[in-house]
Design a protein that fits this description.
The complex is a heterotrimer.
Chain A (H helix, E strand, L loop, with lengths): L1 H9 L6 H7 L14 H5 L10 H10 L3 H4 L12 H5 L6 H15 L6 H13 L22 E2 L7 E6 L2 H5 L1 H16 L4 E3 L9 H5 L3 H17 L2 E6 L2 H10 L9 E3 H7 L1 H4 L9 E5 L4 H5 L4 H8 L4 E4 L21 H6 L5 H11 L4 E4 L2 H13 L7 E4 H8 L9
Parallel strand pairs in A: 1-3, 2-3, 2-4, 4-5, 6-7, 6-8, 8-9
Helix pairs in contact in A: 10-21, 14-17, 19-20
Chain B lengths: L5 E4 L2 E2 L2 E2 L1 H17 L3 E6 L3 H5 L7 E6 L8 H15 L3 E5 L2 H14 L3 E11 L2 E8 L4 E7 L4 E5 L13 E6 L9 E7 L13 E5 L9 H11 L2 E4 L1 H5 L20 E5 L5 H4 L7 E6 L6 H4 L2 E4 L2 H16 L1
Chain C lengths: L1 E5 L2 E3 L21 E3 L1 H17 L2 E7 L4 H11 L3 E5 L9 H15 L3 E5 L10 H8 L4 E10 L5 E8 L3 E8 L2 E7 L9 H10 L3 E2 L12 E6 L8 E2 L4 H14 L5
Parallel strand pairs in C: 1-4, 1-6, 4-5, 5-11, 6-10, 7-10
Antiparallel strand pairs in C: 2-3, 7-8, 8-9
Helix pairs in contact in C: 2-5, 3-4
The chains are: A alpha/beta, B alpha/beta, C alpha/beta.
Bound molecules: flavin-adenine dinucleotide.
Chain lengths: 409, 323, 257
């Protein structure tokens, strides 16, 4: 897709949707589609889409894509990977078909919903989705009681280069988690550092949203940064960034060892266990995020981390692991709530918190930065306030380690 | 008129002076008291006659009548003002940062090669020189400016002066002293906003309700307050999610971005997604029972109280004031 | 129709602005630059006219801030020609100097319609657009949302905004300069791949002009950051007392009906 669509742009020609899909790695698999409709049936928004996934492939192959390209359906996928996971032919709809469709829309001058447009613009101008100054990227660390190695000011070799992510750097609720993570890593004796004002988004949302050019720009920027610094591995708070590094950066020749924090900490579980000195007497249910979960089949590490917390009882929601319901924020979904509501879609996070509460849990544990704000908001509109709280696994671990926030003297 | 006088371009709306005009007059009166001159307000067009006596802070109001001035077009305004400034050589011409002002003030300054300052918030005179405090970079900065060449053209930001209420001004009604030509810009028609649901992005006053409103019935309190203020009601997302108000009234990241002059946040916690939609708001006043609510970091004024007590009280007080 | 658009770079307000050592100017070296919001609307309006009327669009910008990116983005969106005016200083030109610079280049372009944002947040000396219209001896109307072709050839129709969303429809004889508040549609998003393609394929035309002398600008004595409290000022008292105080505040700010 990348080369072909570049060439077309150079020639001033736009590809058809099918051409674009076929030009991408793994793209040819769409030709094996037998129109069984499992994708549409599994899509959480399939019912409210004019063109659910099955039909997208049908229209693409038939070459009749004009109406499809301009329909609201184009902007209703939230990147949950359920269709791709269940496709009996193994067609990677989420990573191949949807981005191609959106790229087509963008190349033909269709405007994405305003919210998403603003998020793209923010990424382009500032390297983060929230449109906040890059110089404020380390504001979360103000008055923190542990040392933060800001490699953008003073480069030095580190064991772990922590890519903090956009929401964890800027969003107030997430900053609490980020600070807990900093204390946790320090308590474990890890030599870690961050990129401070130089850090930019890894670009997973825009890639999924067909903003290939923007993705490439971010990849180039990040590549340069990775080469500038010395580290053993990258650590990610955001599963989407992890996914991008694992699957898409290698396409640009960038291979760096990277782990989502649940994987990294689960690996160090023996070291972690003795540090968990405080019991958390609570019933907890865990929400699998789509990237680490369904996409990477990594279901146990987050659960192992929860199970080692003394006093904590882990229960499962009916839809867990590969059939977990998405929170609706993935790969750009955070900037589509308005569009989806306008076109008849219900918020998935509302349904999910009700499911969580149904297990009798009083804590909904998460491991993706988008989920905190989504679920906390959903708790307000579903009448679950006072019954269910949302906490990141990091927060629970830090609490059990007795790492309360202390202000630096 | 003399070099100590302060000239103001006033505007009218339905036979009354606009709020901006009253502010300009108040500013001009204060300035005139420093220069030892008079505050002279010019009103153009047929509505001027009716509005003139209401411009309380002016010493004098000059109403210029001419058919061509019935609606605003740039050329006649410019011709006339150039003539008046040229004749009277005031120390300053004050113009509001309004739709008319943003055209006429800079055009006039350019044409007469006069110094001009935009975004003025405070104007004073000392020994024949003008001192101005002006807003710069959308109010992120203030600049103290000195102007020694006069007349100067000064564009005043709304909300900078408080209309006082001096004695009734002396009113003078004249025909245009010069022949006015319509010029290359021609007025065709006024278009009023469609009377469908309120467009909250265009409202100057918004009363926002959050979950602190508790019950749908209580929305009436907010509606009444909005009416007393001449504004509209908007809401946070949970209120819209419950179907209490339509999607078009939602402020925030997944709703509308608004830029009212006044935003009253009632029982709104101030979540980042909500606050994102009111970056362009002027004065923000918040009422919330929780003293730690983040909205108090965005608002300029806060009240820690039950909105069910405070809102009716504000509505009452407003009604008492305006009656 | 030949349309020209002026795109200016202004300090981006998402960054904390800094003041130069002499205390009277912005530290432009420390600022980040972005295209002026209203100029961006002017460009969008020009592109909409291009799409409906087949006009050609020339974009003119001063070599300042992130100008190249802005020009390539304009080209990717559909501007036909992008022109850069040389400018060596770290600070932007003063109002009348800027008008003289743009005017010289615009005269050479011979556009029938010039669209410029009707304001910009860094204009201490008032808006550029009307000053530029005067320098070019063109008619001007500003605070316009929406420009359409007129009934008669050689004219356009503009929609000038007044308070309360009231709009005056006016016809303007061409050539003219219009100060744009908003385009008929929000400025379009253009995919980054197109901007990058434009960087490779579209040449920026460099115009040569003599830099005019700056007339003495207004004299800034001091530039400073207004005191902004981090938290709201709390109003205490009974409901009636608070209500009374709020009314007072609203009256002071001219917000009472
Ligand atoms: C992706 C995403 C997009 C979003 N987009 C938007 C958006 O566009 N707009 C938006 O608004 N939200 C949006 N949200 C939701 C947002 O996160 C908040 O949940 C929401 O704004 C909270 O609304 P609220 O202030 O009404 O409710 P709450 O946060 O519950 O606050 C209610 C407040 O009322 C106060 N209160 C209670 N009783 C009283 C009383 N009697 N008198 C006075 N005060 C009282 C409480 O102290 C509290 O502060 C979005 C969320 C997400 C995740």
């Amino acid at each position: 897709m990348i080369q072909a669509s570049k060439k077309a742009v150079d020639e001033g020609r736009t590809l058809t949707l099918l051409e674009e899909v076929l030009a991408s790695p793994e793209g040819e698999s769409v030709l094996t589609c037998m129109q069984c409709g499992v994708c549409s049936g599994s899509c959480p928004y399939g019912e409210v889409m004019k063109y659910p996934p099955r039909q997208i492939i049908q229209e693409a192959i038939a070459g009749a894509d004009a109406d499809l390209i301009s329909s609201p359906s184009v902007w209703m996928c939230v990147g949950c990977y359920t269709c791709a996971k269940r496709c009996p032919r193994g067609i990677d709809l989420t990573d191949v078909v949807w981005p191609a469709l959106r790229d087509q829309a963008l190349q033909r001058g269709i405007q994405p919903p305003t919210e998403l447009r603003v998020a793209f613009q923010n990424l382009y101008l500032y390297g983060n989705l929230l449109g906040i100054s890059p110089r404020k990227r380390l504001d979360w660390a103000k008055d923190l009681d542990v040392t933060v190695r800001d490699l953008s000011r003073q480069p030095e070799p580190v064991e772990v280069l922590w890519l903090v992510g956009c929401y964890p750097s800027y969003y107030p609720r997430n900053q609490i988690v980020t600070r807990a993570m900093a204390r946790l890593l320090t308590a474990m004796g890890v030599r870690w550092g961050v990129l401070g004002k130089d850090e930019k988004s890894l670009g997973d949302c825009d890639r999924l949203f067909g903003e290939e050019g923007l993705f490439e720009l971010l990849v180039e920027n990040n590549h340069k940064l990775f080469r500038q610094h010395q580290f053993d591995r990258l650590l990610l708070t955001d599963p989407h960034g992890f996914r991008a590094l694992q699957k898409f950066y290698p396409r640009y020749g960038i291979e760096v060892p990277a782990q989502h924090y649940t994987m990294y900490l689960a690996e160090k579980i023996d070291q972690l266990k003795p540090l968990l000195v405080r019991a958390i007497e609570a019933t907890v249910t865990y929400h699998d995020n789509c990237c680490v979960g369904r996409r990477c089949d990594c279901y146990e590490p987050p659960r192992e981390l929860l199970r080692i917390i003394p006093g904590l009882k882990l229960v499962e929601m009916p839809r867990n692991r590969e059939i977990a319901l998405c929170c609706g924020g993935g790969g750009g979904g955070m900037w589509l709530d308005g569009h989806i509501t306008e076109h008849g879609g219900k918020r998935l996070s509302d349904e999910r918190v009700l499911e969580a509460a149904g297990t009798g849990a009083n804590i909904l544990a998460v491991s993706c930065p988008f989920e905190l704000s989504r679920f906390e908001d959903s708790i307000k509109v579903t009448g679950l306030e006072g019954k269910l709280v949302v906490r990141d696994i990091i927060e629970l671990l830090a609490e059990s380690m007795g790492l309360e926030e202390r202000k630096k003297a | 008129m003399s070099a100590e006088d302060v000239l103001v371009l006033g505007e009218t709306k339905q036979g009354t002076p606009t709020d901006m005009t009253l502010e300009l007059a108040a500013c001009a009166r204060q300035l005139a008291s420093q220069t030892g001159g008079q505050a002279v307000v010019v009103l153009l067009g047929p509505e001027g006659k009716q509005a003139a006596t209401q411009v309380a802070d002016a010493h004098r109001v000059v109403v210029v009548e001419d058919d061509i001035l019935a609606t605003y077009t740039p050329a006649p305004y410019l011709e006339l003002l150039s003539h008046l400034v040229d004749q009277s050589k005031p120390i300053a011409l004050l113009v509001g940062s309004t739709s008319v002002g943003l055209d006429v003030a800079p055009l006039l300054a350019a044409r007469m090669n006069l110094p001009i300052v935009g975004g003025c918030q405070k104007i004073s005179a000392e020994n024949g020189a003008l001192k101005v405090t002006a807003s710069f970079c959308a109010g992120k900065m203030l600049a103290d400016v000195e102007i020694s060449a006069t007349p100067a053209v000064l564009m005043l930001l709304p909300g900078s002066y408080r209309a006082g209420g001096g004695a009734a001004p002396q009113v003078e009604i004249i025909r245009s002293p010069i022949a006015l030509d319509p010029g290359p810009v021609c007025f065709e028609q006024m278009i009023l906003p469609a009377a469908t649901d309120v467009d909250i992005t265009q409202q100057e006053v918004l009363v926002a309700v959050g979950r602190g409103i508790q019950q749908q019935d209580n929305l009436a309190l907010a509606e009444e307050l909005a009416e007393a203020l001449g504004g509209a009601v908007c809401a946070t997302r949970p209120i819209v999610d419950q179907g209490w108000l339509p999607l078009t009234r939602q402020v925030g990241k997944s709703g509308m971005t608004v830029k009212p002059k006044l935003y009253l946040a009632l029982g709104v916690s101030g979540a980042p997604e909500h606050v994102e939609g009111l970056k362009g708001a002027g004065l923000i006043i918040a009422v919330n029972t929780d003293p730690k609510a983040p909205i108090f970091e965005t608002a300029q004024y806060g009240v820690v109280a039950d909105l069910l007590d405070v809102v009716p009280a504000i509505t009452e007080a407003l009604k008492a004031k305006t009656n | 129709m030949n349309i020209a658009v002026v795109l200016r770079q202004v300090p981006d307000l998402i960054e904390t602005l800094e003041i130069a050592d002499d205390g009277t100017r912005l530290d432009y070296g420390a600022a980040r630059f972005i295209v002026n919001e209203w100029d961006n609307h002017a460009l969008e309006q020009a592109l909409l006219l291009k799409e409906s009327e087949g006009s050609s669009v020339t974009v003119v910008a001063l070599d300042f801030g992130e100008v190249d990116n802005t020009l390539y983005e304009a080209s990717a969106k559909g501007a036909d020609t992008i022109v850069k005016i040389p400018w060596d200083s770290e600070e932007p030109p003063a109002l009348r100097q800027a008008a003289a610079l743009y005017a010289e280049v615009l005269r050479g372009i011979g556009a029938e319609l010039i669209l410029v944002g009707c304001q910009s947040h860094d204009e201490l000396e008032g808006p550029l657009a009307p000053q530029l219209a005067f320098t070019l001896n063109l008619p001007y109307v500003g605070v316009v949302r929406g420009v359409q072709p007129g009934d008669q050839p050689g004219s356009i129709r503009v929609f000038k905004e007044f308070p309360g969303a009231v709009v005056a429809r006016m016809s303007v004889r061409l050539p003219a300069l219009i100060g744009v508040l908003a385009a008929e549609k929000a400025p379009r998003y253009v995919p980054v791949s197109r901007i990058r393609a434009a960087m490779k394929s579209t040449p920026i035309r460099e115009s040569q002009v003599d830099v005019p002398q700056a007339a003495a600008p207004v004299n800034v004595l001091r530039l400073y950051v207004p005191e902004a409290p981090e938290r709201a000022e709390m109003l205490d008292g009974s409901a009636e007392e608070v209500a009374e105080r709020i009314c007072q505040i609203l009256a002071e700010k001219g917000l009472l009906r």
